[in-house]
Amino acid sequence: MSSVETMRFSTFKNKRIPKNNLQRVHATNNSCECLQTCRIHSFCYGASYGIMYTSSSVGIQLGTLGICHITINPTVPKNLETSSGYTTMIMGSTDSGCEEAYGFSNMGPAGCIRLVSTAAKRSDAIDACKKVGGVLAVLSSAQAYNVVVKALTRIGNCTIVAFTVV
């Protein structure tokens, strides 16, 4: 199975990606074609299908129907704008309660954790966590610790910083 086939997207009706997160626009016939346009680009994190709502250097006029607005920035559902008539597809599943578009995984008793393979001083790790809306993880129970250790074992030998969503 290729990585394109395994990408998951969650769909949101009457929501669109904020203008400042858009990088590309394409004319497409429907939301399925818009999603396929997004899926063929490994850098795509999501797309909003509907009326053109941002200025474009490719000559598509504001108000044009059938436009696929693509973002290459990790986008989380809580940041989507409410706007009637749009369908937005965001990479990742949203039913886990974690912001998977930012790399967080639901690790049960440990909560929403993002494992990062970058060595860092504690102060730098705290700052990095804040930048993505989290805090440096404190594993306060043996059960939480064991879940994270099991995930690290699957990753292999690397330095890991774990952070959690507040």
Write a structural description.
This protein is of the alpha+beta class. The chain has 4 helices and 9 strands. Strands 1-5-3-4-2 form a 5-stranded antiparallel sheet, covered by helices on one side. Strands 6-7-9-8 form a 4-stranded antiparallel sheet, covered by helices on one side. The longest helix has 14 residues, at about 140-155.
What's this entry about, in short?
With 166 residues, this protein is an alpha+beta fold.
Which tags fit this structure?
single chain; 166 residues; alpha+beta; 4-stranded antiparallel β-sheet; 4 helices; 9 strands; 29% strand
Topology:
Elements: H1 3-6, E1 9-16, E2 24-27, H2 31-39, E3 46-50, E4 67-71, E5 81-91, E6 105-106, E7 112-116, H3 122-131, E8 134-136, H4 142-155, E9 161-165
Antiparallel strand pairs: 1-5, 2-4, 3-4, 3-5, 6-7, 7-9, 8-9
The rounded distance between the terminal residues' Cα atoms is 35 Å
Strand order of the largest sheet: 1-5-3-4-2
Q: What share of the residues lie within helices?
A: 10-25%
Cα gyration radius (Å): 18 Å
Judged by helices, strands and strand pairing, the structural class is alpha+beta
Could you list the spans in which at least 5 consecutive residues all have pLDDT below 50?
1-6
